[in-house]
Amino acid sequence: MARLSVNIDHIATLRQARLGKEPDPVAAASIAELAGADGITIHLREDRRHIQDRDVRILRETVKTKLNLEMAATDEMVNIALEIKPDMVTLVPEKRAELTTEGGLDVVLNRENLSRQVELLKNSGISVSLFINPDLDQVKTSHRIEADYVEIHTGRFADAINKKDADDEFERILDAVKAAGKLRLGINAGHGLNYINIKKIMKISEIEEFSIGHSIIARAVLVGLERAVREMVDLVKVNQAVLKQPL
User: Fold this and answer.
1) What gap in Å lies between CA 159 and CA 87, rounded to an integer?
2) Among residues 184, 186, 183, 160, which one has the least CA distance to residue 172?
3) C-alpha angle 68/72/179, rounded to 5°?
4) Over its length of 247 residues, how does the chain's per-residue pLDDT go in tens digits?
5) Is 5 helix (H, G, I), strand (E, B) or coil?
6) Which residue, 158, 232, 220, is CA-closest to 11?
7) Is the N-terminal amide bond of 23 cis, ω within 30° of 0?
8) How many Cβ atoms sit within 10 Å of the Cβ of residue 154?
9) Which of 189, 167, 168 is nearest to 177 (CA)?
10) Which of 182, 193, 202, 223 lies at a CB distance of 3.0 to 4.6 Å from 227, suitable for a disulfide?
11) Domains of the chain, with CATH numbers?
């Protein structure tokens, strides 16, 4: 049965809009866990646009499930992770001007640097995931540099404007997941997933965990955070009969 990690970045986005104290990401994480989330995901960006260093430190002390720290593949961020020791680090690409993460890491192009960072993190007892596009070369290189997991970028599937584009991207995701499974990589998925499009991605039974943030926080504005998380938990934690339905 798949797990759900709730990304609480946009709780911090709302707080930083006024540079105040509310809403508190730490409180949001506790509510999400009580509502059934299997983990909490946060992205400490280089520009600190939402999650702050203090948030990371407090969340490390208070999260009771699994803390997944998304971060750029830089020496600064690796040093922070080595100090904080989250349960998992997910290395992601990062551009200062982007609204959100626009695609996966190019593990092939940056193999040497990423290999060094993966080794440092793993030697400190931190599981490492690489956020990649659904591409077979990226999957294979992630395995070669001994990442523990890959997180398949589902953004292009989520943003597809017609059924053909969505179906084509779904097949790429499926192929990447199958390849990662054969290489015995752990498999996560995320980006752009919501209460509707996740129903198709959920049919890929090899995916172990979904990282979802924006759609949950957006729904929470209307119905409350606890209900929004519970509704997504109900979608993710489907029974095995549903997972075995033909793709």
Assistant:
1) 30
2) 160
3) 70
4) 789 999 999 999 999 999 999 999 999 999 999 999 999 999 999 999 999 999 999 999 999 999 999 999 999 999 999 999 999 999 999 866 555 556 899 999 999 999 999 999 999 999 999 999 999 999 999 999 999 999 999 999 999 999 999 999 999 999 999 999 999 999 999 999 999 999 999 999 999 999 999 999 999 999 999 999 999 999 998 643 455 555 5
5) strand
6) 220
7) yes
8) 25
9) 189
10) 223
11) 3-238 (3.20.20.70)
Rounded Cα distance, 42 and 211, in Å: 10
Within 13 Å of residue 119, how many CA atoms lie on the same side as its CB? 8
Q: How far is CA 73 from the centre of its chain?
A: 15
d(CA 247, CA 239): 16
The rounded distance, in Å, linking the Cα atoms of 42 and 88 is: 11
Q: What is the DSSP string of 88-138?
A: EEEEE---TT-SS--S---TTTTHHHHHHHHHHHHHTT-EEEEEE-S-HHH
Our CA angle for 237, 208, 90, nearest 5°, is 125
| Angstrom distances, CA of residue 110 to CA of 61, 104, 105, 182, 217 | 33, 12, 8, 23, 33
Residue identified by tokens 């990226």 is: 138
| Token pair listed for 29 | 């994480």
Question: Mind telling me the catalytic residues?
Answer: 43, 70, 191
